[in-house]
Amino acid sequence: MPSWQDFQPFLVVGLALGGVYALSGVGMIVLYRATGVLNLAFGAIGAMGALIAWQLINGGINEWLAYVVCVAFSAVLTLVYGVVFGPPLAARDPLVKAAATLGLALILLGAMDLLWTSNGGAVRSLTLATDSSTFTVSQIQINWTQVIALALGVVITVVTGAWLRYTKLGTAMRAVANDRQITATLGVPVRRVEAAAWLGCGVLSGLAGLLLADLVALDATTLTWLVISSLAAAVIARLRSIAVTLVAGIVIGVVESMLVPINSLTNYADMTPFVLAGVALLVVMFRRREITVSRGA
């Protein structure tokens, strides 16, 4: 069993990953509550944005400008998809909507494989400018990218919660989530509200793609399917509570990372999102059964 000193660097990485999982989960929940769409293309869109940023930086473009392009590309692509395919899918089952976004993810994954083919197994890397600034806490070296990743997860959760509760657009979005048709009859511009949700989800997708490309790897397949961890956080929150999503995302990131230094459990670290989401679902089902039995009695 590794010592606590061996675990400390992985704890830092886990907190950073947890922050990204949390902000991704928040984006997915807001979109789902507003449109009924579970965006399985979230990771692929962010991955393509990160690869575009990498290409621009290698071409001599300013790093920060490349980051802005990544986020803008992800936001525009997500918005266009929502505007074009959102209305036709509005009346369809949630499973059909999710399958449609999975199709988009597979198309983008194929496009990335064609546009950024690895020659001779070459490994790409995207090192953010914030990696160069580091500080030490209890002999653990921490860079500002890790701090920003965790801080963004917390800040975006708090800001999104306040925005949904206290702004007109947030109130309209919650109304659309409850009943789209009734909200439309009340004069609320439903399509604009849904477009705002798609746009916000796209912005978060670009941010997540940039951060994960630095924290994990700049690999299209890896970044595309890291959406599973974010989805697990959202599922644990039952696609409702963004506060629970924050906690769940951080727990998933920390547990997943802390299993890596344990040799006997390293190979099972990737199963963390599935296990934690499964346990959460079982707990919910058990509570519902208890309530049903108690009411029947």
Describe the protein's architecture and organization:
The chain is mostly helical. The chain has one domain (4-296): ABC transporter involved in vitamin B12 uptake, BtuC (Orthogonal Bundle). It contains twelve helices and two strands. It has helices spanning 4-35, 42-58, 63-89, 94-115, 144-166, 168-178, 180-185, 190-215, 220-225, 227-236, 242-258, 272-296, and strands at residues 134-137, 140-143. The protein has a two-stranded antiparallel sheet with strand order 1-2. A hairpin with a 2-residue loop joins strand 1 (134-137) and strand 2 (140-143). It is globular and about 60 Å long. The N and C termini lie far apart (49 Å). The model has no long low-confidence stretch (mean pLDDT 88).
Short structural summary:
With 297 residues, this protein is mainly alpha-helical. 75% of the residues lie in helices and 3% in strands.
What are the main properties of this structure?
mainly alpha, 297 residues, 75% helix, ABC transporter involved in vitamin B12 uptake, BtuC, single chain, two-stranded antiparallel ribbon
Quaternary class:
single chain
The CATH class label is: Mainly Alpha
Structural class label:
mainly alpha
What spatial order of strands do you see in the largest sheet? 1-2
Radius of gyration: 20 Å
CATH topology: ABC transporter involved in vitamin B12 uptake, BtuC
Approximately how much helix is present in the residues? over 70%
Order of H and E elements: HHHHEEHHHHHHHH
Overall mean confidence score, pLDDT: 88
What is the terminal-to-terminal distance?
A: 49 Å
Instruction: Bin the strand percentage.
Output: under 5%
Number of domain modules: 1
Total number of beta strands: 2
Q: Any low-confidence stretches, pLDDT <50, length ≥5?
A: none
CATH architectural designation:
Orthogonal Bundle
Largest sheet, in brief, is: 2 strands, antiparallel
